[in-house]
Each structure stands twice: as C-alpha cells, then as structure tokens.
C-alpha cells in the first residue's frame, strides 16, 4: 500500500510538473493576451469604438505576436536567452506553415528549440577554440533554429493543425450537445489539487483564443476563471461555518472574488471533502448558464477576479456573464450551506488545525512527510540552516497569486521584526538551488520544490494566507544573527583590483552574466589571450549568475551592475567588478596578481 501511495504521489507530481510547464509558457505573457483582448473589444467592427485601421492589429497579434511570445518563453525556461531565441525561430516555422493560431505549436517548438541548443552547448561549449566563441554561439543558434523552423513548417505544423481542428471540432460538438457543464465536474477538483493554472492557461486559454479569433468571444475563458463557485462556498462559511473558518471567510471573499486569487478557498474545501460537491455544483450550474445565455470573453480573465471577467466581456454579453457568475455562486452556496448545517459537531473548528490534521492523514497515505513533521522541521531539521538564510522565497506553481500574497504577509512581519531579509515569490520551475534561501511552499507542492532546490531550507505550510508558521519563522530568524549580519570577510568588489582580495586559492575564472551572454563570452576570450601571453593555464568559462556555486576557488568577473547579484550567489568567491568586460584595464592587474600569488 505504501509503495502504491508513493507511486501515486509521483504520478501526481509529474502531472503537476507538466501542467506547470504548459502554464509557465502562457502566464508570463497574459498581459499580451489582455492587450489583444482590449484591442479586439474596442476596435473591431462590432467593438465599442470601431476603427478599421487600428483593428488591423488584431490578426497579426493573434497569429504572430502571441505564439512567438509563448515559444520564446518556452525556450527560455529550458536554456535561458539562447534557448529563447532558438525557440522563437522554431516557432516561426509552425506559424507560417499553418492557418490557425499556433499556440499549441509554440508550446512544442519553444521548449524543443531550448532543449536542442542546450544539448549542443553541453556537447561542444568546452571544445570551442579561443576566439571563436561568438562565432560558434551565433551560428549554432542560427542553424539549429533554421533546421527546427523547417521541421516545424513541413512536419510539426501540419500535425498540430490537424490536432487543433480535431480539438476545436470536439469542443464544438460538446457545446452543441450542451455537455460543456460536465467539464466542471473535473475542473473544480483539479483546481483544488493545484492544477488550476495548468488547466486554465495550459489548455483552455489557447483553445479559447482560437475560438475567440473566429467567433469574437469564447466560453472556454470562463470555465476555470468563474469566481462564482468560490464566492458561494465562502459565503456559506461566513454564515454557517465555525471557529476561525467562519471568522476568516469574509476576508477571504474579498481576496477571492475581487482580487481573483482562487487559491484562498482551496483549504476551506480541503478541511471538509464533502464540499467538493459544492464547488462542482457551482461550476456546473455556472457553465450551464453561460452556455444557455451565450456568454463568453474576448480574452483570458487573469486573475479570475470579477473585475477581470467584466473587463474582458464583449459588448452585449454582460448579462450572460454576470448571470453565470451569480448562478454558480448560488448553487455553490446552497450545497455548501446544506453540508455545513448538517454538521452537528459541537466543537468549533480551527481552520489551521483542521488543515493540518487532514494533510497529515493525506500525507501518511502517500508515504510523505506529514504537516506535523513539516512544522517540527522549522525547529529541528532546519535548525542549523536558519543561520545561513539571507533570502526568503514563496514558491507556488505559477509564482503569482497566492504566493505573492503569502510573501506580502511575511514581508510585513519580517519588516516589523527589524530584519533586512528580502522576501519574494517565484514559480517552482524558476527556483535555483541556493543553500542560503528559505523556501516556503505548500504541502502539495513540497516534493517538486525540493527537486528544484535540494540544498535550500524548506518550510511547508497548509495555507499561504493564514499560516501559524510565519511567526515561528520570524522568531527563528531573529535568534540567528548570521541571517541579518553581512559577511564582512568577503572581499568587496571595489577592492579586488587594489589587492585586498585573496588570490591564493583561485584556480579558475568565471565570467558571469544575468541575461546577455555575448559580452561575457568576448571578455572571456580577451582574458584567455592575456593569460596565454603570460603563461597562465587557468580555465576560463562563462556561466549564468543563477547557476553560480559558492566556491572559494573561483574568481567571478561581472559587469558592475550585476556584481551584487553575483556576490549574493557566491559570497565566498573572489569578485571582479568591471565597467566593460571587454576592454577593462583590470585584466592586466588581475593577471599580475595571480601570476605573483
């Protein structure tokens, strides 16, 4: 049984990871989708302010801009800037080779382009002769992108077109058969298992954009984003709940319905599994109303706020959209009220305690650490590591929404405690393995987060918005002076060329960069030539700052604007800050000091 539970947990983590990759390509570009939706709503022939000239932007944005952004982002997720460029080139092949908006093609070609250039770099980067780095890097990206664009045009594009038409037909059949509401029987539970972003942005948004391009709007944008079911559930808790769940529900309504952060109501469902029926009923009834009245949005509503829904509503659809939201809320409220009123237990429920007990049983069935174990980890397992923490990161599937709110709550507590530790939020896929980072994540996502950053300090919480662990984290950090005291032994970047750095341990040089690799590669070539002239044989490489390791034997050269960032990643290394990595006079000084060490 235990092995089966672990296998099930592993499958779930893989599904979440796949969904995260899909949504991760779309979510950073939601602003572009919204811009396209606004332009469409205003300037097309049936829009609010019809303008024939401005309406000419609609089609190119849909067919070129949006897929290229997705492909670029997908390539970047795999292999940074080089992957992004090759991913965009590859995406262009499927765009030109098709007659439909190529969102799915972009989700294939973008990561494929990043993967191909990554494999090339892994195989040949160390074999490039000095002076040929820029030439090889540029031509490799161009030629690999060229090959993938041809592949996309002739092979992948037509296959994706066929699949897209098939899916569109399937959706059309479901809609005409009035069966679309059934989808919410699966969507609502999947949302609460943290697949909401994967479903909405990985599946429904691309299909909806394709449908909106031809019909002017799409009901698919409303299936997951409908704030009605969550509103009804929280209203029921406000009236018929008990303890902290009842007292916290009104505040959660503001965050969920107006702010669009649906994750706020997930724990309320988890503490009473029967309430899955409430949100499922709300989703089904809401979608049935949408379909009955011909509702739809012109672009994705993200986040799922009532304001975002109204902003993306086309002229003539306000009544249908508002009715679907209200019916969904009413259905969810009625079912949730019946379930809550049927609970005859006399003891008041504490939301955090109920969540912890439920998560403990759930985790034990999967062979994972329980919530109690996670709490004790704050004071035992991670005890020695808290002294090293110099940053706190809230990590969730998308790096937005609930994690941003959790980060805001803890940031306020950290500030009031007089600590100077930065608190930020990030998508799990963007985490780097930093042993000085304290990563706060939800129980459901803990496994994936630890795989991305195994050496970090972790604290798992049940609810980002209301966790008792936050005060404990602050108290632990206050007890550890090393967490807030700067490392005075690390050489300052401005002191390197003046001889205050210790060169005795240096055995390799790294040119580190944040986004653009080109100038760093040229700087590495320059220093290689200088070292060769002086008879030095130290290895010199280029590396993204995000991938730096804290090595006392490394000398790290960075542009002065990026030096602080590099020092935070590798505080024990010798850092060289230069205003121009290609022509700086510091290279001669460095060479002499290394030669004479």
Helix and strand arrangement:
Layout: H1 2-26, H2 30-43, H3 58-96, H4 103-124, H5 133-176, H6 183-215, H7 220-223, H8 228-240, H9 243-258, H10 266-270, H11 276-293, H12 306-311, H13 318-341, H14 351-366, H15 371-379, E1 391-396, H16 402-416, E2 423-427, E3 437-442, H17 446-452, E4 457-461, H18 469-479, E5 508-513, H19 518-533, E6 540-544, E7 554-559, H20 563-569, E8 574-578, H21 586-595
Parallel strand pairs: 1-2, 1-3, 3-4, 5-6, 5-7, 7-8
Largest β-sheet summary? 4 strands, parallel
How far the N terminus sits from the C terminus, by CA atoms, comes to 62 Å
Instruction: Round the Cα radius of gyration to an integer and report it.
Output: 27 Å
Low-confidence stretches: 346-350, 353-384, 482-499
Please give the count of helices: 21
Helix content: 55-70%
Strand content range:
5-15%
- Pairing-aware structural class of the strands and helices? alpha/beta
H/E element sequence: HHHHHHHHHHHHHHHEHEEHEHEHEEHEH
Order of strands, widest sheet: 2-1-3-4
Q: How confident is the prediction overall: mean pLDDT?
A: 78
Q: What shape does the CA trace take?
A: globular
Report the count of strand segments: 8
